[in-house]
Structure formats: structure tokens, C-alpha cells
Amino acid sequence: MLLKTFGWSFAVTALGLVAAVIYGGWTAFGIVAILSILEISLSFDNAVVNAGILKKMSAFWQKIFLTVGVLIAVFGMRLVFPVVIVAVTAKKSPIEAVNLALTDKDQYQQLVTDAHPAIAAFGGMFLLMIFLDFIFEERDIQWLRWIERPLAKLGKVDMLSVCIALVVLLVSSMTFAVHAHQHGGAHVDKAQTVLISGIAGLITYMVVGGLSGYFEDKLEEEEEREHEEEEEAARTGKKKPAVVLAGQAAFFMFLYLEVLDASFSFDGVIGAFAITNDIVLMALGLGIGAMYVRSLTVYLVRQGTLDDYVYLEHGAHYAIGALAVILLVTIQYEIHEVITGLVGVILIAWSFWSSVRRNKALAEAEGKATASDKTEVSSGV
């Protein structure tokens, strides 16, 4: 089971490390290994959230997630995305951006750093909306009840999460503008870019998430209707035409997963520049890490880990909220990527420990109930 799920990740790791040695020797080997670990540590919460969505999809779409999705994640976000950033912000052609990445790595890194406020605003708003929609939703299982219970009641107010997200974005952009003005005004014009990028992130979340939710609801309605008419379908031999609808639902959930992965990868791509500005080593290291994140996602789904450890999804969403805040703070202030990674790991570890305690308490309660029933039966006899 482990080899089947992580087999491709092991293979890509071997190929990536060999390619690193051929490209730049053992120094490159070490850099790629460090980048891989960085990506995995920063994206573990991504795997948990992905698993919550992927478990609703068929085995076919899970395979698509591991094949086509990997190509998008590795080549799209870890290789093409940094080049596109430079091409757009520096007003260069993609060919010029690639040439710059290979020939003048210091200037390339500087251009990506200059584009960071816009990237952080887009990714921060997208992730913040995921967290807000989760925390404002009424749910049967609550982890931190003293926080989640009152927030769930507030969540009954329409569009509350959107209003809060827009307020946060407005404060972030105004603070950035004031800070830039106090330090010479070199980046005052970027405050508008931050605002526009954040709104773009919000719109992207609402469009993709809305379409995904719409088709998911339609799919559930269709499945319920099919279940009610199961006997009639068996008697007449007619099949229900749900394949197209299932395909639409799965496609938009897949699209949502890819945008979600893109938002999670922002901090990894930016953080990678603290280690190297070599685009080849960056793509190798982050690509290996992305493979493990995807394999871990599928592993969590197939093992039913989220069903056994019910607070894991909560911990992952709190980690998303923390990452969103960190991204928005990094518009103006620098935060080390180690801190970013540790926050997510601590929150998920805490939720896992809470889940273990919950399972243990339930098992003890069930054991006591069983013993009590046996006692009553014995007394009756």
C-alpha cells in the first residue's frame, strides 16, 4: 500500500537528486534535498485539506490528480510560475524571463522579490477565504469549541466572510501604502497593485469554489434521486444519465484543488529564494516536495485518516488561516519560512493529538457501556 501510493514520489526523488548531482555536483544535491523538505513541511496542511476534497472524488479523478495535477503543480507552479511573475512584473517576454533566470540569477531573484506583495495579497486572500468559510460554518464536530461555537453562530450572517476578508485586504493595502510613503514613497504605487491582486484572489476563490460547490450539490442531489429510484431502475433496466454531471462536479473540484495548491505553493516558491536563486534547482527541489504532498493526500484518503482523526481537518484549516495572515503580513514585513512551516506543523500536530485523545475517550466510554450491559444481562439471568 505504501509503495503503491508513494512509488512515483520515490522515483521522482531518485531522478531529481541524480539530475541535481549531474547539474551542479553534491552542493546542488544538498540544496535540492533541503528544498524538498522545505516544501513538504510548508505544505503538509495542504495535503490534509486536499484529502478532505479528494475523498469525494472517484478513483479516476484521484489518478488525474496524481498525473495531470502533478504536471500542473510541478511544472506550472514550481517552474513556470516564477518565470511568469518576472515576465508580467518586469514587462518582459517569457523567453527573456527564462534567459534572465538562467543567466542573471541575482536580477531574476530581485524581480521576483519585487513582485512578492502582489503574490502575497492574491494567495493570502484566497487562503483567508478558505479559513473564514470553514470557521463560520455550523458543524457537528467542533475542535476548539470556545472559538468555533460563537463563530458558527456569527456565520449565519450573509456574506460575513467576504466582508471580513475585504476589510483585512483594505487594512493591509493602506498600511503598506502608509509605510511606503514614510520611507520615501518608492512603493506607494504598489499599494494599488496589492489591492487589485487581493481582490483577484477573492474573486478566484468565489468563482472556482462556487462552481465546485454548485456541481457538488447537484451531484449529491442526483445520487440521492438515483438511490430512491434504484428499484425502478433495476426493474426497467434503464441507466440514469449521471456521468456528465459527475464529470462536471469532479472537474470543478479538481480545478478548485489546483487553485488551492497554487495558493499554498506561493510561500514555498518565495521561501525557496532564501536558499537558492537557481531556477533549475528550485524546480527540482520543490517538484520533489510537491510529489510527496500529492502522494500523502491520496494516502490520507485511502487510509481513511480524516475519518479516524476527526480534528485533523480543523487543524489544517487553522494552519491555512495562519498562513493567510503570514502572507498578508509579509507584504510589508519579512517572516522567516521556518516560522511559517512550524506554525502549520504545530497546529496539525495539536489537532492530531486531540483526535487521539478523543478516540481514546470514546473507546473507554464504549468499554464501560459494554461492561454495564453485560452486568445488567447477568443480573437478569
From TrEMBL:
<feature type="transmembrane region" description="Helical">
    <location>
        <begin position="64"/>
        <end position="90"/>
    </location>
</feature>
<feature type="transmembrane region" description="Helical">
    <location>
        <begin position="157"/>
        <end position="181"/>
    </location>
</feature>
<feature type="transmembrane region" description="Helical">
    <location>
        <begin position="118"/>
        <end position="136"/>
    </location>
</feature>
<feature type="transmembrane region" description="Helical">
    <location>
        <begin position="6"/>
        <end position="35"/>
    </location>
</feature>
<feature type="transmembrane region" description="Helical">
    <location>
        <begin position="193"/>
        <end position="215"/>
    </location>
</feature>
<dbReference type="InterPro" id="IPR007427">
    <property type="entry name" value="DUF475"/>
</dbReference>
<feature type="transmembrane region" description="Helical">
    <location>
        <begin position="315"/>
        <end position="333"/>
    </location>
</feature>
<feature type="transmembrane region" description="Helical">
    <location>
        <begin position="269"/>
        <end position="294"/>
    </location>
</feature>
<keyword id="KW-1133">Transmembrane helix</keyword>
<feature type="transmembrane region" description="Helical">
    <location>
        <begin position="241"/>
        <end position="257"/>
    </location>
</feature>
<keyword id="KW-0812">Transmembrane</keyword>
<protein>
    <recommendedName>
        <fullName>Integral membrane protein</fullName>
    </recommendedName>
</protein>
<feature type="transmembrane region" description="Helical">
    <location>
        <begin position="339"/>
        <end position="356"/>
    </location>
</feature>
<dbReference type="Pfam" id="PF04332">
    <property type="entry name" value="DUF475"/>
</dbReference>
<keyword id="KW-0472">Membrane</keyword>
